[in-house]
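Protocol step 4 of 6: structure prediction from sequence.
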Amino acid sequence: MEKIQIVLVLWLIGLLPAQAQRTELVPFGDFEHWTVRHIKESPVVGGETKTLYVVGPDEIIDKNAPYDYAKTIWASSNAYARFSGVTKVSVTVEPDQGPDGTCAKLSTRFAECKVAGLVDVKVLATGALYWGRMLEPVTGVKNPYSFMDWGIPFTKRPSALLLDCKAELPATGVLTKGTTFRQKEFPGEDPCQIMLLLQQRWEDADGNIHALRVGTAVRRIARSTNGWKQGFRVPVFYGDARRQKGYQAYMDLLQGDKTLYAVNSRGQRKPILEEGWAEPDAACTHAVLQITAGCQGAFVGALGNTLWIDNVRLEYVE
């Protein structure tokens, strides 16, 4: 009799409609289209013309000017900087050959220049792509996140982030901190990181930006991959991620020195104050996607880290 009941339950389960899954490629997420910017650096740092890349419409721009990020949802760690009247650029993200066309290559390296041909300046930069815009030109190295407008308006509820990726990490156990004239080495690891955050944001009467975390999708790649990993899946946890199986401390709220910035409705740069966890069914207003060749923060990383990504898409359950 018990066996008959089990068979009956299994038969009834089989009658239930299966949940269908579909995926959507995010805009420009196949990395087949790039805007190419030619920026001429100041004579005091060599006067060369450097090439900056933006994931966006096919276009060539031959002038030193801020980029119009209304054309794309993507920005990067590529920096058009102007300090004390001196123009300098840093390139850590560029197109490369992928398994089925063009992909994005993110690298951790020194941005180097000689001032007046004599003083050697090195700043460590980690390759990163993110949704939002760079507030150009960058005018200082203090609090670099404040030169980025993080996130885009977003109201959907994906079940996962999917992408194709390949990673090469030197795994030397050595981290480097490089800011202008000083470089320092110390022990540590620097995994690549893929992070999608869904937020519910609002502004108070003073224009401050507040947020609750609606959804969390974060994974790290700590070792070199054996070639390309197709369909690398990062599930989205809704509600309090700390209560989910697989939670790690790096999935926590972005507070303190991890605080991101955005431009409010008045055009002011403000920190995004992530104040808590939303209920699992809370509405989402914004999404923050960040893909980086390292996770140590500004000016610190493992030299030589390289991450290739392609075909960024979102998974939905219907």
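Step 5 (inspection) to follow. Confidence is low (pLDDT under 50) at residues 6-16.
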